[in-house]
Protein backbone atom coordinates (compact mmCIF):
# COMPACT_ATOMS: atom_id res chain seq x y z
CA UNK A 1 0.00 0.00 0.00
CA UNK A 2 0.98 3.66 -0.34
CA UNK A 3 1.31 5.77 2.78
CA UNK A 4 2.79 9.01 4.12
CA UNK A 5 5.58 8.32 6.59
CA UNK A 6 8.19 10.43 8.33
CA UNK A 7 11.46 9.13 9.76
CA UNK A 8 12.54 12.35 11.49
CA UNK A 9 10.86 15.45 12.88
CA UNK A 10 10.84 18.65 10.88
CA UNK A 11 8.95 20.66 8.28
CA UNK A 12 6.50 19.34 5.68
CA UNK A 13 9.43 18.12 3.60
CA UNK A 14 10.01 15.18 6.01
CA UNK A 15 6.73 13.60 4.85
CA UNK A 16 7.53 10.80 2.39
CA UNK A 17 5.15 9.03 0.01
CA UNK A 18 6.26 5.42 0.36
CA UNK A 19 5.19 1.84 -0.13
CA UNK A 20 4.59 -0.12 3.09
CA UNK A 21 3.16 -3.54 3.99
CA UNK A 22 -0.53 -3.61 4.84
CA UNK A 23 -1.05 -3.32 8.61
CA UNK A 24 -2.63 -6.27 10.41
CA UNK A 25 -5.65 -5.72 12.66
CA UNK A 26 -5.37 -7.15 16.15
CA UNK A 27 -8.17 -8.27 18.43
CA UNK A 28 -10.74 -5.49 18.68
CA UNK A 29 -9.49 -3.80 15.49
CA UNK A 30 -10.48 -3.67 11.83
CA UNK A 31 -8.55 -2.97 8.64
CA UNK A 32 -10.06 -0.17 6.54
CA UNK A 33 -9.45 0.52 2.86
CA UNK A 34 -9.54 4.29 3.05
CA UNK A 35 -11.47 6.50 0.64
CA UNK A 36 -10.92 9.88 2.36
CA UNK A 37 -8.49 11.03 5.06
CA UNK A 38 -8.87 14.18 7.17
CA UNK A 39 -5.90 16.41 8.01
CA UNK A 40 -5.74 18.12 11.41
CA UNK A 41 -3.36 20.61 13.01
CA UNK A 42 -2.30 18.03 15.64
CA UNK A 43 -0.84 16.06 12.71
CA UNK A 44 1.43 19.04 12.04
CA UNK A 45 2.49 19.38 15.68
CA UNK A 46 3.21 15.65 15.84
CA UNK A 47 5.36 15.85 12.70
CA UNK A 48 7.31 18.76 14.19
CA UNK A 49 8.12 16.75 17.32
CA UNK A 50 6.14 19.03 19.63
CA UNK A 51 4.53 16.11 21.44
CA UNK A 52 7.95 14.63 22.22
CA UNK A 53 8.90 17.63 24.34
CA UNK A 54 8.60 17.06 28.07
CA UNK A 55 6.85 20.37 28.71
CA UNK A 56 3.87 19.42 26.52
CA UNK A 57 3.01 16.52 28.87
CA UNK A 58 1.68 14.60 25.86
CA UNK A 59 2.58 11.07 24.80
CA UNK A 60 5.45 11.05 22.34
CA UNK A 61 5.82 9.65 18.83
CA UNK A 62 7.94 6.63 17.93
CA UNK A 63 9.70 7.02 14.56
CA UNK A 64 9.15 6.08 11.81
CA UNK A 65 5.53 7.15 11.97
CA UNK A 66 2.48 7.13 9.71
CA UNK A 67 0.42 10.00 11.11
CA UNK A 68 -3.21 10.99 10.82
CA UNK A 69 -6.26 10.67 13.05
CA UNK A 70 -9.37 10.13 10.92
CA UNK A 71 -10.60 8.24 7.90
CA UNK A 72 -13.63 7.13 5.98
CA UNK A 73 -13.48 3.86 4.07
CA UNK A 74 -14.66 0.26 3.85
CA UNK A 75 -13.71 -2.49 6.28
CA UNK A 76 -11.62 -5.18 4.59
CA UNK A 77 -11.25 -7.57 7.51
CA UNK A 78 -11.51 -7.78 11.27
CA UNK A 79 -9.09 -8.93 13.94
CA UNK A 80 -11.72 -11.02 15.67
CA UNK A 81 -14.90 -12.80 14.64
CA UNK A 82 -16.89 -10.51 16.90
CA UNK A 83 -16.45 -7.71 14.38
CA UNK A 84 -16.90 -9.71 11.17
CA UNK A 85 -20.27 -7.98 10.69
CA UNK A 86 -18.35 -4.80 9.83
CA UNK A 87 -16.57 -6.35 6.84
CA UNK A 88 -17.69 -4.60 3.66
CA UNK A 89 -19.34 -1.74 5.53
CA UNK A 90 -18.51 1.93 5.05
CA UNK A 91 -17.28 3.49 8.30
CA UNK A 92 -15.99 6.74 9.80
CA UNK A 93 -13.17 6.15 12.27
CA UNK A 94 -11.09 8.09 14.76
CA UNK A 95 -7.64 6.74 15.61
CA UNK A 96 -4.38 7.67 17.33
CA UNK A 97 -2.18 7.27 14.22
CA UNK A 98 -1.91 5.56 10.86
CA UNK A 99 -4.61 7.39 8.90
CA UNK A 100 -2.34 8.69 6.09
CA UNK A 101 -2.44 5.44 4.17
CA UNK A 102 -4.45 3.49 1.64
CA UNK A 103 -5.16 0.95 4.37
CA UNK A 104 -5.44 1.80 8.04
CA UNK A 105 -6.18 -0.03 11.26
CA UNK A 106 -8.84 1.35 13.61
CA UNK A 107 -10.37 0.21 16.87
CA UNK A 108 -13.83 -1.23 16.30
CA UNK A 109 -15.11 0.71 19.32
CA UNK A 110 -14.02 4.06 17.86
CA UNK A 111 -15.92 4.03 14.58
CA UNK A 112 -19.47 4.29 13.31
CA UNK A 113 -21.10 2.75 10.26
CA UNK A 114 -22.18 5.06 7.43
CA UNK A 115 -24.77 4.70 4.70
CA UNK A 116 -23.41 3.82 1.27
CA UNK A 117 -24.53 7.14 -0.23
CA UNK A 118 -22.79 9.24 2.44
CA UNK A 119 -20.30 11.82 1.15
CA UNK A 120 -16.93 10.31 2.11
CA UNK A 121 -15.00 13.58 1.87
CA UNK A 122 -17.41 15.50 4.09
CA UNK A 123 -17.50 12.79 6.74
CA UNK A 124 -13.71 12.42 6.75
CA UNK A 125 -13.41 16.10 7.63
CA UNK A 126 -15.14 15.96 11.02
CA UNK A 127 -14.09 13.23 13.49
CA UNK A 128 -11.23 14.89 15.38
CA UNK A 129 -12.51 18.45 15.50
CA UNK A 130 -16.18 17.53 15.72
CA UNK A 131 -15.77 15.00 18.53
CA UNK A 132 -13.63 17.51 20.45
CA UNK A 133 -16.38 20.13 20.18
CA UNK A 134 -19.03 17.58 21.17
CA UNK A 135 -17.09 16.43 24.23
CA UNK A 136 -16.57 20.04 25.29
CA UNK A 137 -20.30 20.79 25.13
CA UNK A 138 -21.84 17.51 26.25
CA UNK A 139 -19.32 15.72 28.46
CA UNK A 140 -16.87 18.17 30.03
CA UNK A 141 -19.91 20.35 30.63
CA UNK A 142 -23.52 19.83 29.59
CA UNK A 143 -24.93 22.69 27.58
CA UNK A 144 -28.65 23.00 28.32
CA UNK A 145 -31.31 24.37 25.97
CA UNK A 146 -31.75 28.11 26.41
CA UNK A 147 -28.21 28.74 27.66
CA UNK A 148 -25.65 31.08 26.11
CA UNK A 149 -22.25 30.12 24.72
CA UNK A 150 -19.09 32.03 23.83
CA UNK A 151 -16.85 30.17 21.35
CA UNK A 152 -13.36 31.57 20.95
CA UNK A 153 -11.63 30.99 17.62
CA UNK A 154 -15.04 30.25 16.14
CA UNK A 155 -13.75 30.36 12.55
CA UNK A 156 -11.36 27.48 13.25
CA UNK A 157 -11.98 23.79 12.79
CA UNK A 158 -13.20 23.00 16.30
CA UNK A 159 -14.78 26.43 16.74
CA UNK A 160 -17.07 26.48 13.72
CA UNK A 161 -18.34 22.99 14.49
CA UNK A 162 -18.85 23.99 18.15
CA UNK A 163 -21.02 26.91 17.01
CA UNK A 164 -23.20 24.55 14.99
CA UNK A 165 -23.34 21.86 17.68
CA UNK A 166 -24.34 24.46 20.28
CA UNK A 167 -27.26 25.50 18.09
CA UNK A 168 -28.31 21.88 17.58
CA UNK A 169 -28.27 21.45 21.38
CA UNK A 170 -30.65 24.38 21.79
CA UNK A 171 -28.37 27.25 22.81
CA UNK A 172 -30.35 30.49 22.86
CA UNK A 173 -27.38 32.73 22.13
CA UNK A 174 -24.09 31.73 20.49
CA UNK A 175 -21.31 34.32 20.32
CA UNK A 176 -18.22 33.56 18.28
CA UNK A 177 -14.90 35.38 18.30
CA UNK A 178 -12.58 35.65 15.31
CA UNK A 179 -9.65 37.80 14.24
CA UNK A 180 -10.88 39.45 11.02
CA UNK A 181 -14.02 40.72 9.33
CA UNK A 182 -13.86 37.86 6.83
CA UNK A 183 -13.55 35.24 9.55
CA UNK A 184 -16.33 36.84 11.60
CA UNK A 185 -18.60 36.74 8.54
CA UNK A 186 -17.81 33.03 8.26
CA UNK A 187 -18.73 32.54 11.93
CA UNK A 188 -22.12 34.15 11.32
CA UNK A 189 -22.64 31.94 8.28
CA UNK A 190 -22.19 28.89 10.52
CA UNK A 191 -25.14 29.96 12.67
CA UNK A 192 -23.67 32.18 15.39
CA UNK A 193 -25.94 34.96 16.61
CA UNK A 194 -23.04 37.39 17.11
CA UNK A 195 -19.40 37.55 16.01
CA UNK A 196 -16.88 39.77 17.77
CA UNK A 197 -13.10 40.36 17.79
CA UNK A 198 -11.22 38.82 20.73
CA UNK A 199 -8.28 41.18 20.14
CA UNK A 200 -10.48 44.23 20.81
CA UNK A 201 -9.58 45.81 24.18
CA UNK A 202 -13.19 45.78 25.36
CA UNK A 203 -14.52 42.52 24.00
CA UNK A 204 -15.81 41.26 27.42
CA UNK A 205 -18.00 44.36 27.58
CA UNK A 206 -19.52 43.40 24.23
CA UNK A 207 -20.37 39.95 25.62
CA UNK A 208 -21.97 41.49 28.71
CA UNK A 209 -23.99 43.85 26.52
CA UNK A 210 -25.26 40.98 24.36
CA UNK A 211 -26.27 39.01 27.48
CA UNK A 212 -27.90 41.99 29.24
CA UNK A 213 -25.16 42.08 31.83
CA UNK A 214 -25.52 38.44 32.94
CA UNK A 215 -22.52 37.00 31.14
CA UNK A 216 -22.49 33.71 29.25
CA UNK A 217 -23.21 30.28 30.69
CA UNK A 218 -20.44 28.46 28.81
CA UNK A 219 -17.12 29.58 27.32
CA UNK A 220 -15.06 27.39 24.99
CA UNK A 221 -11.54 28.74 25.42
CA UNK A 222 -8.99 28.23 22.63
CA UNK A 223 -6.84 31.38 22.72
CA UNK A 224 -5.08 31.53 26.08
CA UNK A 225 -2.76 34.34 27.13
CA UNK A 226 -4.54 37.52 28.25
CA UNK A 227 -7.80 36.35 26.68
CA UNK A 228 -7.99 33.49 29.18
CA UNK A 229 -7.99 35.90 32.13
CA UNK A 230 -10.48 38.24 30.43
CA UNK A 231 -13.00 35.41 30.06
CA UNK A 232 -13.96 35.64 33.71
CA UNK A 233 -15.17 39.22 33.30
CA UNK A 234 -18.03 37.93 31.12
CA UNK A 235 -18.64 34.42 32.50
CA UNK A 236 -21.93 34.38 34.38
CA UNK A 237 -23.13 32.93 37.65
CA UNK A 238 -22.63 29.13 37.62
CA UNK A 239 -20.73 29.61 34.34
CA UNK A 240 -18.43 26.94 32.96
CA UNK A 241 -15.19 27.60 31.09
CA UNK A 242 -13.89 24.67 29.03
CA UNK A 243 -10.26 24.91 27.90
CA UNK A 244 -9.72 23.36 24.47
CA UNK A 245 -6.42 25.02 23.52
CA UNK A 246 -4.18 28.03 24.00
CA UNK A 247 -2.84 29.42 20.74
CA UNK A 248 -1.30 32.39 22.58
CA UNK A 249 0.24 30.27 25.30
CA UNK A 250 -1.02 29.32 28.77
CA UNK A 251 -0.88 32.80 30.29
CA UNK A 252 -0.68 33.46 34.04
CA UNK A 253 -1.78 30.88 36.63
CA UNK A 254 -5.39 31.16 37.80
CA UNK A 255 -6.09 31.67 41.50
CA UNK A 256 -8.65 28.95 42.35
CA UNK A 257 -10.50 31.23 44.78
CA UNK A 258 -11.39 33.40 41.78
CA UNK A 259 -14.01 30.78 40.85
CA UNK A 260 -15.81 30.99 44.17
CA UNK A 261 -17.53 34.38 43.88
CA UNK A 262 -19.87 33.24 41.09
CA UNK A 263 -19.69 29.48 41.71
CA UNK A 264 -17.93 29.00 38.36
CA UNK A 265 -16.28 25.89 36.97
CA UNK A 266 -13.06 25.51 34.99
CA UNK A 267 -12.43 22.29 33.10
CA UNK A 268 -10.60 21.10 30.00
CA UNK A 269 -10.79 18.65 27.13
CA UNK A 270 -7.98 16.73 25.44
CA UNK A 271 -9.21 14.29 22.83
CA UNK A 272 -6.59 11.49 23.19
CA UNK A 273 -7.43 11.13 26.89
CA UNK A 274 -10.92 10.01 25.81
CA UNK A 275 -9.53 7.03 23.90
CA UNK A 276 -9.93 5.18 27.21
CA UNK A 277 -13.65 6.02 27.02
CA UNK A 278 -14.57 4.79 23.52
CA UNK A 279 -18.27 4.92 24.42
CA UNK A 280 -18.00 8.72 24.54
CA UNK A 281 -16.03 8.81 21.27
CA UNK A 282 -18.72 6.75 19.56
CA UNK A 283 -21.42 8.95 21.04
CA UNK A 284 -19.75 11.97 19.48
CA UNK A 285 -19.29 10.25 16.12
CA UNK A 286 -22.97 9.25 16.03
CA UNK A 287 -24.03 12.80 16.92
CA UNK A 288 -21.97 14.16 14.02
CA UNK A 289 -23.23 11.51 11.60
CA UNK A 290 -26.86 12.26 12.48
CA UNK A 291 -26.41 16.04 12.49
CA UNK A 292 -24.76 16.04 9.08
CA UNK A 293 -27.32 13.61 7.70
CA UNK A 294 -30.15 15.90 8.82
CA UNK A 295 -28.44 19.01 7.41
CA UNK A 296 -28.05 20.55 10.88
CA UNK A 297 -24.24 20.45 10.83
CA UNK A 298 -22.43 21.69 7.73
CA UNK A 299 -18.71 20.85 7.69
CA UNK A 300 -16.42 23.10 5.67
CA UNK A 301 -13.97 21.26 3.38
CA UNK A 302 -11.26 23.68 2.29
CA UNK A 303 -9.57 21.45 -0.29
CA UNK A 304 -9.15 17.86 -1.42
CA UNK A 305 -5.59 16.85 -2.33
CA UNK A 306 -3.98 13.56 -3.34
CA UNK A 307 -2.44 11.57 -0.48
CA UNK A 308 0.91 12.02 -2.22
CA UNK A 309 0.62 15.77 -1.58
CA UNK A 310 0.21 15.52 2.19
CA UNK A 311 3.23 17.83 2.56
CA UNK A 312 1.33 20.54 0.65
CA UNK A 313 -1.66 20.05 2.95
CA UNK A 314 0.55 20.54 6.01
CA UNK A 315 2.13 23.65 4.49
CA UNK A 316 -1.31 25.11 3.81
CA UNK A 317 -2.32 24.55 7.42
CA UNK A 318 0.86 26.12 8.75
CA UNK A 319 0.34 29.19 6.54
CA UNK A 320 -3.31 29.28 7.72
CA UNK A 321 -4.51 29.27 4.12
CA UNK A 322 -7.28 26.72 4.69
CA UNK A 323 -10.74 27.91 5.76
CA UNK A 324 -11.94 24.48 6.81
CA UNK A 325 -10.48 20.99 6.74
CA UNK A 326 -8.17 19.57 4.08
CA UNK A 327 -9.00 16.03 3.00
CA UNK A 328 -6.59 13.62 1.29
CA UNK A 329 -7.61 11.25 -1.53
CA UNK A 330 -5.68 7.97 -1.05
CA UNK A 331 -6.05 6.90 -4.67
CA UNK A 332 -3.22 9.20 -5.78
What does this molecule look like?
With 332 residues, the chain is α/β, with parallel strands linked by helices. The chain folds into two domains: 2-125 and 300-329, Quinone Oxidoreductase, Chain A, domain 1 (Alpha-Beta Complex); 130-272, NAD(P)-binding Rossmann-like Domain (Rossmann fold, 3-Layer(aba) Sandwich). The protein contains nine helices and 15 strands. Strands 3, 4, 5, 6, 7, 14 and 15 form a seven-stranded mixed beta sheet that branches. Strands 10-9-8-11-12-13 form a six-stranded parallel beta sheet, sandwiched between helices. It has a two-stranded antiparallel ribbon with strand order 1-2. Helix 9 links the parallel strand 14 (301-306) and strand 15. Helix 3 packs across helix 4 (157-168) and helix 3 (127-138) crosses helix 8 (278-293). It is globular and about 60 Å long. The mean pLDDT is 94.
Helical/strand content category? alpha/beta
Query: How far apart are the termini?
Result: 11 Å
How would you describe the shape? Answer: globular
Rg on CA atoms, Å: 20 Å
CATH topology of the largest domain: Quinone Oxidoreductase, Chain A, domain 1
Report the mean per-residue pLDDT as an integer: 94
Query: Low-confidence runs (pLDDT<50, min 5 residues)?
Result: none
Amino acid sequence: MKAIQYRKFGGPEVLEYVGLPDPEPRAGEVLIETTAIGVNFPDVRERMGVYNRAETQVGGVTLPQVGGLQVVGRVLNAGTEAHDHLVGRKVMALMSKGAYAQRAVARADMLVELEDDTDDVVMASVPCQGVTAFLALQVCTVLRPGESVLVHGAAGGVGNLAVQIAKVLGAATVIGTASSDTRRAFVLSRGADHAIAYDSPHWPESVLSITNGKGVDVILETVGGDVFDENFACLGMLGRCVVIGSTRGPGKPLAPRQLMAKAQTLTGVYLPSFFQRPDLIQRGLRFLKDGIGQGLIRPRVAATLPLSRAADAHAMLERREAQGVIVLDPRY
